[in-house]
Amino acid sequence: MKSQGGSAIKSCAKGYTLVELLIVVSIIAVISALVVLRILPAAAGTGDVGAGLMERAAWEAAACRFNQNIVQNATEYFAIVYGHYPATPADLFPRFLDRIPRCPATGAEYHYDAHHLVVCPYHP
Questions:
Q1: Considering the entire predicted model, what is its pTM?
Q2: CA dihedral in degrees (13, 16, 19, 23; nearest 10)?
């Protein structure tokens, strides 16, 4: 293109086209919709107080099993190193565990059964 004076005008496209902007906005809208659909049911809940208590109990039981696995793994490692099992989970501290996990629901200490398996008195 030439201007009236005869010099060439540079055609530099600055910015984005309308199509590019519409694509970006639609992608953001889809992602936002997915996030909202994921968050709303959790935020709304069921309105049933008992359901919330059951959910909490399920999370506490899962956390308790996780803690039991940590203590059990440290117990097995103790047995490999020393050739015998520890008498109590407290024997694992401080060499094998930096702290002794407890049941998250009650704070009860774990103990061993006859087969050296870690047991929670609250979540058998």
A1: 0.55
A2: 150
